[in-house]
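Fill in residues.
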């Protein structure tokens, strides 16, 4: 069996890499761990850091709203902070995997500018836990 391993191959960014049945598997960290658990009887722990990432991003969004109360996600964040943070974090991850550098440029759409500002807050703040 041939295994192609990549650190970001567990992410669900479309289009997904093609998987073949001819003895070849494409795996990220989580898929490789599940493979070892299934085939070799190793036990691992599930990745339960998602709630920490969502909370850190929620804090960055709240901080951004203090600086820019008219952000496009203001109403959604007011209604449900965790769900909005999770959805925007998912969008942020897709943009990051697509190769966007989160740099502010002239003519950038308002929503992308807002996400770039959020990323700037995240990168410069060490107090988000």
């Amino acid at each position: 069996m041939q295994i192609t391993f990549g650190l970001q191959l567990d992410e669900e960014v479309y289009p997904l890499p093609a998987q073949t049945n001819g003895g070849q598997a494409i795996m990220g960290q989580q898929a490789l761990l599940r493979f070892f658990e299934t085939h070799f009887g190793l036990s691992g722990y599930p990745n339960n850091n998602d709630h920490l990432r969502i909370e850190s991003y929620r804090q960055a969004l709240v901080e951004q709203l203090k600086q820019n109360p008219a952000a496009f996600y203001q109403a959604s964040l007011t209604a449900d902070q965790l769900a909005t943070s999770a959805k925007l974090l998912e969008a942020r991850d897709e943009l990051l995997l697509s190769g966007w550098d989160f740099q502010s440029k002239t003519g950038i759409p308002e929503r992308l500018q807002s996400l770039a500002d959020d990323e700037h807050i995240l990168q410069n703040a060490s107090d988000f836990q």
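The first strand starts at residue 2 and ends at 5.
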